[in-house]
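Q: What does the predicted 3D structure of Glycosyltransferase look like?
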Amino acid sequence: MDVVIPCYNYAHFLPACVRSVLDQPGVDVRVLVIDDTSSDNTPEVMAELMAADKRVEGRRHEVNKGHIATYNEGLLEWASADYTVLLSADDLLAPGALQRAASVFEQNPDVGMVYGRVVYYNDHNALPRVFELPTTSRVWRGDEWIENRFRSSRNVISSPEVVVRTKIQQKVGGYRADLPHAGDLEMWLRIAAVSDIGYVSGKPGAYYRVHENSMMRTTFKSVFADLEQRRDVFDLVLAENPGLPARLGTLARKAIAGDALWRAVRLHDRDQLDGTEKELLDFARETYSALEELPEYRALVRRQRFSPALLNRTQLFLAPHAVKRAKLWVGTQRWKWRGEW
């Protein structure tokens, strides 16, 4: 199993990340660390790791190439084992994750990608306690998995929990530089268009670090970028796979518009009206013209009838909102646990 670890100024995370790969039981692993011209002590740390274990290789770019080019260098030019993992230097593989994924591949030759549960954390030295159930697995036909993604319009995968069959990865090609916010979603859909998809539940597959510099930080600028690029991804996948039913495009756009409207609703609830809510409404209408049929639109209209000060003072919609958010939270945990969200 080949593991590609891109690293940019993450020297302090790198040893734990590499160790989480080298300690995987039941599989033979190789590791390639690619230093994309870091300004910290990544070269020294990388050299120490290479000297300590011959399974670790290292490369350093003379000029910063960016994350997409670095990903593709490892996945398309270096990887040669049966299965490949792309692992950020600040993330960790969970114990036994690669062996569990390999088992799904071996039992299902049509599976091109296997993913699992991901655990979010912020401290290598204090990983969260994880409730584990007996390991089980599930396989979806590629078209079935694609339809589930279009229906929800969301990416169910963080990234480090993914293992890809190398010949499939190299068949579909690398990540797209024009989709920096949603390139991973496009990649998963591209893989599902040519293979089946497996999921391992019970024990986690990886730990995804959330921290100050994490790309998971959300600003309104990044929110719009995420919404726009998710819409672009689903439009692109439909255009490049004419065999997919056109109705999927409507499902995705409807769900993305609902997401934008719900964000506008939350701005009303928080009395944070600065014009962003109008931009979200315009985006939603541009994405899906039949807004009036969406419950999120009706929720927004109800809030627009009252001043933010009155809503904030009286908490007029607090109870319905709390109930809906509770249902969404419970549903999200169920979907994430089963890999269906």
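A (community wiki): The structure tokens above were generated from the sequence. The chain has two domains: 2-209, 245-338. Residues 213-218, 313-326, 328-341 have pLDDT under 50 and may be disordered.
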